[in-house]
Amino acid sequence: MVEKNISFTDQSSMAEELRRVSIVGSSGPISFSSSGGRQQLQFKLSNYRKGVGYRTVGYFNPKLNFTGTSYFRDASTQIPLDSLPPNEEYINKGLIIALYIFGSLNILFYMFNLALIVKFRRTTLIQQSGYLYLHMILIGSILMVSSVFVLGTDMQFVSKSTRDRLCMLSVWQIGIGYVFLFGSLFAKSLRILLIINKPELKNSNNVDRMITTFLCICFTIEIIFLIIWTSVDQLKAQPKLKDDERTLFYWCESESYGFPVAWISFNMFFLFCGVVIAYLTKDVERRFNESKIIGFSIYNVFILCTIIIPLTFTIKDSPSITFAFQCIGVIGVPLGSAVMLFGKYIFVLLSSMKSHTNSNSGKTTVQEQQTSY
């Protein structure tokens, strides 16, 4: 600022006084050279890229000539890599095809089990194993595996709004499928625990009614939470740059971590409770011949979830590897449980088709050496 009382008509005195100005303004230090040019002036050069926004590519000092050598923020004359158009990385197409085929085979396997259970629904084996629970396990498995086809969608061929919808759709498929699958395993294990502690409940419908109510509550909580999440802060396919600042990829995330963390925490707490109940029923009497299989199925879910979830966030900058691990989770969790749980049913029921047919009623019966609960 000019502090002396100088007339505006005294140009030489005004110029001399202005050269002595030295203040700090919003653009930085303000001072002038003897020739009247501003000193210590620096311009930031930014480059705008679609889907990424503005990236700083260097700085410019008026003392340098634009037509001469340009110096960038690292004090070199080399054009920074992040000033060039980014490469876009998507999921490997061969991996997508392979996992789509594997996922389809899994769905066919679950549908075969559904058909088998419906056919033999009146047998002792199916009735005492819980006809409703078995259906829910298989439906949940189908929902979880079907998310593979959403997770593997090639983002370069869909619009931004479609990308965002696909991000949230996969969460709905996995969330509802998980409640159906794990909730039923949890219910079967809890049923055994209640019968052990109160044998008089073995032939009572109160246990099944209470457990079914519990499952409905868990399902309702999951649905309400997903509706609120979708309405308030849904997942969106956000463009991200890898560490090399040259490669662009898409990652589904919300504006805040509140909803994802709460969703994962709720389901992991549910899973932890199931592990505790499975542990409490690990040494039950031999007549509860499904308890160990159910326990191993729950452990399978727990181990895969605790490994896959952290890994997915750790390697998120590699779309192909991330997709592979996501598929290990959504395919491996239901497949491991289904093989352990339904392997016995397939063997017993298919064997019975040849040897235990009632010619008078046309209904199939299964003679069992042990009783399932």
Description:
This protein is mostly helical and 373 residues long. The chain is elongated and about 110 Å long. The chain has a 3-stranded antiparallel β-sheet, with no helix packed on it. Mean pLDDT is 75; it is low at 358-373. The chain has helices spanning 11-19, 93-119, 124-129, 131-151, 160-197, 205-233, 258-280, 291-314, 319-355, and strands spanning 22-25, 28-32, 38-39, 43-49, 53-60, 87-88, 236-241, 247-253. Helix content is 57%, strand content 11%.
Short description:
This protein is 57% helix and 11% strand. It is mostly helical.
> H/E series, N to C?
HEEEEEEHHHHHEEHHH
Helix content: 55-70%
Low-confidence stretches: 358-373
Mean pLDDT: 75
Count of individual beta strands: 8
Which secondary-structure class do the elements indicate? mainly alpha
Distance between the termini: 90 Å
Helix tally?
9
Strand order of the largest sheet: 1-2-3
Radius of gyration: 33 Å
Give the overall shape, derived from the CA principal axes: elongated
Give the oligomer, counting copies of the same chain as homo and different chains as hetero: single chain
Strand portion, in percent?
5-15%
The profile of the biggest β sheet is: 3 strands, antiparallel
